[in-house]
């Protein structure tokens, strides 16, 4: 790896060059970020996953820049346009925009007004006018009048000369850099409704005549305006004051107030209005879109991590119910490993006789399969089914409501069809509800992360960037927790460091043919799983009850020898180091430091011996909703427990058990000003909220986390507080789409009457 990459990245990110160089070399060897951050701490200087991710991303950007640089040099050389001076400028360009500005005058282009003028032989006239001497422009133009070339008058010749100058101005590096800076600092978003689209595009009404400083516009509003534009309801521009833009350009090209100088000044004005304004606006649109995408993807990844790392119930016998009224509740019984033992349908909401039969069947199944937990999906009829289950008073059985977002996506997926080929989608969905309570991470990896429903404008952002970020998040979570090798699904194994879908399939097939793996070392017998894959994966795989107790831990096989030496030095067995804290306390790690193994790894090993294979997730605690079961039960001022289901830039959505999430606007998240909702709440967090307003006709609920919230309709409570330096107040709400439901459009609205439009969709039936 070249030194310039190392030094540049180290300086930009404020990291140790040696650590950056080591990380880049490990990336070159196809090492994964989880593996490097966990097992190569000495090499990188203890760089964490965040720093490693930044190094990897920046390295990719620099490689892309160099690839483009090489392509430009090759193109210029092939056309005999490459000079030593030009080559030096190209090689010195540090950013892509600068590189493209240098190349712009030489880029093959379509026929323009300037090229037409050049074809008419007017370039020498343009040079003379641009020199801005004392000559009369008309006199300079006279020799260029030619019927044969289509130049009939001196004014036509001068117009052609101005076209040539205007193009030169538009391709000048300095002029583009100045305008780029102007658009980035003073650009203003301006959206308008298209004529005749007012009624049809009412969901975008807050953007019908909307202005906002582009540098301060939040991600969700940028994406909302772009969606309104793409759907044919809005026009969206990024504008700057034309006079200010032109005043930045004129000093670069206008040398004096002579007649020729006035011609150049006219050309500069034309260049901005006809060429540069649109070009710079296009760049500004692209940059603001990138920023909005990055923010939205960041929100999605952060929320996804929280839900994937939700507390697992663990290995329990579960009776899972997918609730329903008319169609009944789909019931499955699972053993402690999530294996489907029985499925059925009960009808607890279809009259007294059906309810009595359902109660009898529930009691009989709970006894037969030694049920320890009842899991109930939180969709339609969820609270009513919970009430029914609690009334059974099954001794020793706890009842838990489970967020079923994405269950329908899993039930119709190829993964589910392969796992349960003889079961219908309702049974598969119920199994998913039960299993995600047992281990949310292991179950949710089976579906596309976008279907979990914790994103914001996920269909509008860059899809490749979104996928990369979400895949990295899932990989990080899976490897942070570790995977039980003998029970893990193919989907879960595929996210383990060093593995992929093909290797995961081979592992499952080998396990099915040969039985449970007795040790990590046995993995080496799996077809196509070579030494590199084993090195990357082994430390993240667990074997509960293995003969070697280290196989249950996060200690990497390459370090087993160190642990065995520690035990031998103390005259004990490895298992004694795990069970005896006093024995571990006698270990002096300084005795085991070598060139390859340093203090960070040795400290990790000692921590693992104390709690081998410990799960970093919090311990599971059952949650119980308040008494309200439907939106009609709510009253302003009512205080209720809830669970945060989504966090966006404008606030948080909270499930309070009434089949309809409520919104806590960012201004209602705390008694103090909140700039970032994620700094206050996280997905899955248990909170106590106050109902501030209910809109029954629209099924919308406004909530607050303030200690003494103002209760009543949004319009009656005055304007929400804004930061001192905030831009003009405007739309604040955008409901992220829940992808397991039929697609509906979000409405970026600002008042309580319109703010939650399309945000509070009824839960899946």
Give an overview of the whole structure.
- With 765 residues, the chain is α/β, with parallel strands linked by helices.
- Among the domains are: 3-78, RuvA domain 2-like (Arc Repressor Mutant, subunit A, Orthogonal Bundle), CATH 1.10.10.650; 320-438, YqgF/RNase H-like domain (Nucleotidyltransferase, domain 5, 2-Layer Sandwich); 631-755, Nucleic acid-binding proteins (OB fold (Dihydrolipoamide Acetyltransferase, E2P), Beta Barrel).
- It has a five-stranded mixed β-sheet, with helices on both faces.
- The model is unreliable at 721-765 (pLDDT under 50).
Key features of this structure:
Nucleotidyltransferase, domain 5; OB fold (Dihydrolipoamide Acetyltransferase, E2P); 15 strands; Arc Repressor Mutant, subunit A; alpha/beta; disordered C terminus; 765 residues; five-stranded mixed beta sheet
């Amino acid at each position: 790896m070249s030194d310039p990459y190392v030094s540049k990245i180290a300086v930009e990110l404020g990291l140790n060059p040696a650590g950056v160089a080591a990380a880049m070399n490990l990336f070159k060897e196809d090492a994964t970020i989880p593996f490097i951050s966990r097992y190569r701490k000495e090499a990188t200087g203890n760089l964490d996953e965040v720093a490693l991710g930044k190094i990897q991303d920046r390295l990719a950007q620099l490689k892309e820049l160099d690839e483009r640089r090489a392509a430009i040099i090759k193109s210029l050389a092939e056309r005999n346009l490459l000079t030593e001076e030009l080559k030096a400028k190209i090689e010195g360009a540090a950013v892509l925009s600068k590189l493209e500005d240098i190349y712009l005058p030489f880029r093959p282009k379509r026929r323009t007004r300037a090229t037409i003028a050049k074809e008419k032989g007017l370039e020498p006239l343009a040079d003379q006018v641009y020199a801005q001497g004392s000559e009369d422009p008309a006199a300079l133009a006279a020799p260029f009048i030619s019927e044969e070339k289509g130049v009939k008058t001196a004014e036509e010749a001068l117009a052609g000369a101005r076209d040539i100058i205007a193009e030169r101005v538009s391709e000048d590096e300095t002029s583009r850099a100045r305008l780029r800076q102007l658009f980035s600092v003073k650009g203003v978003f301006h959206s308008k409704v298209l004529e005749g689209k007012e009624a049809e595009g009412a969901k975008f009404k807050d953007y019908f005549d909307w202005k906002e400083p582009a540098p301060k516009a939040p991600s969700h509003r940028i994406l909302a305006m772009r969606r309104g534009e793409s759907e044919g309801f809005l026009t969206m521009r990024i504008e700057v004051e034309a006079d200010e833009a032109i005043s930045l350009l004129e000093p670069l090209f206008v040398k004096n107030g002579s007649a020729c100088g006035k011609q150049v000044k006219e050309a500069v004005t034309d260049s901005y209005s006809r060429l540069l304004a649109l070009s710079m606006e296009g760049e500004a649109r692209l940059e603001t879109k990138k920023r909005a995408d990055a923010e939205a993807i960041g929100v999605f990844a952060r929320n996804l991590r929280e839900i994937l790392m939700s507390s697992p119930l663990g290995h329990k016998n579960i009776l899972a119910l997918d609730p329903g009224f008319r169609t009944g509740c789909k019931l499955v019984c699972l053993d402690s490993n999530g294996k489907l033992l029985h499925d059925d349908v009960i009808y607890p909401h279809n009259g007294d006789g059906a309810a009595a039969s359902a109660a009898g069947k529930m009691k009989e199944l709970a006894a037969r399969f030694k049920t320890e937990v009842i899991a109930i999906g939180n969709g339609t009829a969820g609270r009513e089914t919970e009430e029914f289950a609690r009334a059974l008073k099954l001794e020793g059985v706890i009842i838990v409501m489970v967020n079923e977002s994405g269950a329908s996506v899993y039930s119709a997926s190829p993964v589910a069809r392969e796992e349960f080929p003889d079961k219908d989608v309702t049974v598969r969905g119920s199994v998913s509800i039960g299993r995600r309570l047992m281990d949310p991470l292991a179950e949710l990896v089976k579906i596309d992360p976008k279907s979990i429903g914790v994103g914001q404008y996920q269909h509008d952002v860059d899809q490749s960037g979104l996928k990369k970020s979400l895949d990295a998040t899932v990989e990080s979570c899976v490897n942070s927790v570790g995977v039980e090798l003998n029970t893990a699904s193919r989907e879960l194994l595929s996210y383990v460091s060093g593995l992929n879908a093909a290797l995961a399939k081979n592992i499952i097939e080998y396990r099915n043919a040969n039985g449970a793996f007795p040790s990590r070392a046995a993995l080496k017998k799996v077809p196509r799983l070579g030494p590199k894959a084993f090195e990357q994966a082994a430390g993240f795989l667990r074997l509960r009850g293995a003969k070697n107790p280290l196989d249950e831990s996060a200690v990497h096989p390459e370090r087993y020898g160190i642990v065995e030496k520690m035990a031998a030095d103390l005259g004990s067995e490895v298992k004694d180091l795990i069970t005896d804290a006093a024995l571990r306390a006698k270990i002096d790690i300084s005795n085991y430091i070598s060139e390859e193994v340093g203090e960070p790894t040795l400290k990790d090993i000692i921590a693992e011996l104390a709690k081998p294979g410990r799960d970093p997730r919090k311990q599971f605690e059952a949650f119980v909703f308040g008494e309200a079961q439907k939106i009609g039960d709510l009253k302003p001022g009512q205080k209720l427990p809830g669970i945060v289901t989504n966090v966006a830039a404008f606030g948080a959505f909270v499930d309070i058990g009434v089949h309809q999430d409520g919104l806590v606007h960012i201004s209602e998240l705390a008694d103090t000003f909140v700039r970032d909702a994620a700094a206050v709440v996280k997905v899955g967090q248990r909170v106590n909220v106050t109902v501030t307003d209910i809109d029954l006709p629209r099924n919308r609920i406004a909530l607050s986390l303030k200690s003494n919230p103002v209760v009543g309709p949004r319009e009656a409570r005055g304007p929400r507080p804004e930061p001192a330096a905030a831009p003009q107040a405007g739309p604040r709400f955008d409901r992220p789409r829940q992808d397991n439901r039929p697609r509906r459009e979000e409405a970026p609205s600002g008042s309580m009457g319109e703010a939650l439009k399309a945000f509070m969709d009824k839960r899946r039936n």
